[in-house]
Amino acid sequence: MKGIKHLARHLDISIGTVSRALNGKPDVNPETRKRVLEAAEELGYVANQSGRALRQGRTGVIGFMMQTGTEITGQGDTFFMSVFDGVQAVFERHKLDLVALLCSSEEDPHDYLRRMVSRGFADGVIISATRRHDPRIEFLAKRKIPFVTLGRSLTDAGQSWLDLDFEGMAEASIDRLVAQGHRRIAVTRPHDDMNLGYVFVDKCREAMARHGLTLDDDLVFRSTPNEAGGYQIARGVLANPDRPTAIVLVNEAIAIGLYRGLEEAGVKPGRDIAVIGRYSPHASFLSPPLTCFRLSLRDLGVALAEALLANIPDYANTYAQASPRRLWPFQLVAGESDTFTLPG
Questions:
Q1: Considering the domain boundaries, does residue 53 fall inside one?
Q2: Are the CB atoms for 294 and 330 separated by under 8 Å?
Q3: I need a labelling partner for 72 at 20 to 30 A (CA). Which of 27, 82, 154, 314 fits?
């Protein structure tokens, strides 16, 4: 593999001309550009990306921060893999590369992000798992680093964000269950300070109040967003002396554990308790089929990438129409896990 100096000597033309030809500059003779490109391919030319980044003030890399660990992702994470596919589909148009910034569940996310930013290897950042109050948002805004958040926060620096429509999911679930005669309805939320938990539970309370009902505090179950968390919720539901007749699951991974915990006690979803959750590839094998909310994760990734690029000067004009703040809708897919109706 040869560098630009070797390529220039081979062609007997200046390094500047070779550089302009490789970068598609308009002031290069078409015949010369053709010679340069053919020779580059023949000699196996590889650009010095670090040198180019220093000259241009750009790296061509975008970081996507997420947390790792079985407490966060359980036995696998199909959510982010699908989102990444959509993000990279957009970045490929501009020869940008996506790098996953994997913060251990044992490390403070703000400390991790500060360390990554200090290394200066990314032109922009996407952050996920937004907290109720999230110092990462203020940090990136003060450093004037282009970023977008997957999720909202009370910390608001005017940043672009996309978030799943948890309010719409809460309202549709409660309305559906109340129409089937349920009055004692349980809901779930993450175990930590993620903002989505507050958004979801608050909207469930509001929807139930609209029907003249109350969401009891003992029916709001916190858990880790994985299979073990779902199993823990099942045990909590079964231990309640006034057991709920229905439950709404905010996380896509907990349905499997919930089903197992209920069925070990002889309680069958769809027959003894109504269950509404979120779709995951694993949940598609549950019996009875889960009534769930589904969305296109790849399309969500595309929208995230376009929202970020709209904040980077080199691409802002191309993505001027990208929505800076947007709730991403769910689609309800009716299964059999909530089909029984209680007498009015």
A1: no
A2: yes
A3: 154
pLDDT at 189 over 60: yes
Q: Are residues 184 and 263 both part of a single domain? A: yes
CATH code for the domain in which residue 232 is found: 3.40.50.2300
**Angle 339-340-342 from CA coordinates, rounded to 5°:** 140
For the ranges 103-107, 118-122, 287-291, 314-318, the lowest mean pLDDT is seen at 118-122
The H or E element containing residue 127 is strand 124-127
* pLDDT mean across residues, the chain: 89
Distances (CA, A) of 83 to 91, 302, 305, 313: 13, 8, 10, 24
Identity at 164, one-letter amino acid code? L
Considering the domain architecture, whether residues 176 and 323 belong to the same structural domain is answered as: no
Whether the link from the prior residue into 288 is cis, omega within 30° of 0, is yes
Structural domain total, the chain: 3
Are residues 302 and 246 part of one domain? no
Residue 41: CATH number of its domain: 1.10.260.40
**Shortest CA distance to 325 belongs to which of 193, 157, 91, 140?**
157
What are 104's strand-pairing partners?
68
